[in-house]
Batch of 2 targets.
Target 1
Amino acid sequence: MPSRIPPLHISAFTATSALGVGKAPLLAALEQERSGLRANDFGDAPLPTWIGRVDGLEDIRLPEPLAAWDCRNNRLAWLGLHADGFMEAVAAARARHGAARIALILGTSTSSIGETEFAYTQLTADRQFPPEQRRAAVHTPHSLAMFVQQVLQLEGPCETISTACSSSAKVFASAERLIRLGLVDAAVVGGVDTLCGSVLFGFNSLELVSPQPCRPFDAARNGISLGEGAGFALLERGPGALELRGYGESSDAHHMSTPHPEGLGAEHALDDALARAGVGTDAIDYINMHGTASMKNDEVEGALVSRRFPASAHASSTKGFTGHTLGAAGIVEAVISLLAIETGLKPGTVNCKELGTGFGPQIKRGPERGDVRYALSNSFGFGGNNCALIFGKGVAA
């Protein structure tokens, strides 16, 4: 088992989703049990499903020095970065540590592929991209990180993590290692993903998309609702009010799109996160489950929570609020977990009317309030790319 790690202070964090820009509308929706999903209106021939779409991205114009980076994904990153004073917090950290001593680690599943799709509809007579689309840096998976690095004026290590739906959870693990090894003094972590044809029709081809709003852990659940989101956090050495306490990563490699039937990889990630945090399952007051509303994911994760956690634990899926934000799911749900610690609000599982057979009392349909000392956030991606994060209330709380 891994050794216990020193906690890292989370000095700033923010998330933008279909529920709104920043933490305030997110927290309000969680408290009011209000979903941000709507009937799909994305694209020229919308797939009959429900989505978590961020309003206003089409109207955003990047400043002229950044105009070459323009695409839906980078516009959402720009919008998200300007919420909750996050830009100012990074500027202050840059003054404290120096630009070269702050890492940038971002997760994304599709990055700017939507812009690449659009570019292919504009091919010239000789089958080339038109001049305005010959932006090689935009048409790569690393587009997001390069764009944000320029926006934040950071000069430290810059990483893109793309492990499907665990991408922006694993950024916390990478940041902890860089800081513990002394390579940097702080790290900006996060993730951004946006809707595009490849995502909507790709997931539909796997028969994973629901024609109704997703219903995590419901007896009649029948698939996911896709969404888009952006989130960021600033990690620094030392204690603070909110802390990263542990993480666990695994790759069970059972199947390209189906979790291990006994949840072995997910359980391995959980055990490693608990070991690094130095706590047992009885210490976890809130569990943000991956909970996609697909038949197999919910079945396997629900069984894991049922056998490992006491009945008094409060577990829920928040994907009925935001949709499944893909590579941004880890950071959006990390922010929800941090808000649970900060405010005592433990969200429910919106859209779940009747718990499916075999799910334990840990899974709650409605929100509750209470002291949250430790929160666990699960993120499980295609190919068995699993990540579990444990956040804690620090001494300064």
Target 2
Amino acid sequence: MNPVTAHDARRRRRLAAEIKDSLRELSNQLSLLNHQVGTHLELKDVDLDCLELITRHGPMSPSAVARRAGLHPATMTGILDRLQKGGWIARERDPDATDRRAVEVRALRERSTEVFKLYAGMNTKMDNLLADYSAADLELISDFLQRTSTAGQTATSTLAEA
């Protein structure tokens, strides 16, 4: 095995710093895109974030949404009230729960096309960008993004518990 040279170590640190910087820039750009989508839909940023969580991972309890979002349950109640009033979600009794008061929240599909239309431009740009990569490249990128997402979830949970 070749020993790691000082040059290799510097290059690795520089590349790691560039990746972290690019992820921060990506986060900013996606936040701005999400803000524009939310503005078009007349949703607050946090409401859109919670709607996305419910759409991707639901149906789930309000407390599960709050945990995933790193928000206090009382804050979640107001968000869910706004989303329900806007016709984005439904609250339904959980038929499997032993507590008859247990509720699940689910996204209403009737409204999802409005959201998808607003992200269509970004989705098309992503399709064009990804077309330039091989299947092996895409597997590596997918693995990196999944692991980065898990790291982000862990960091969010740690901060929420602090």
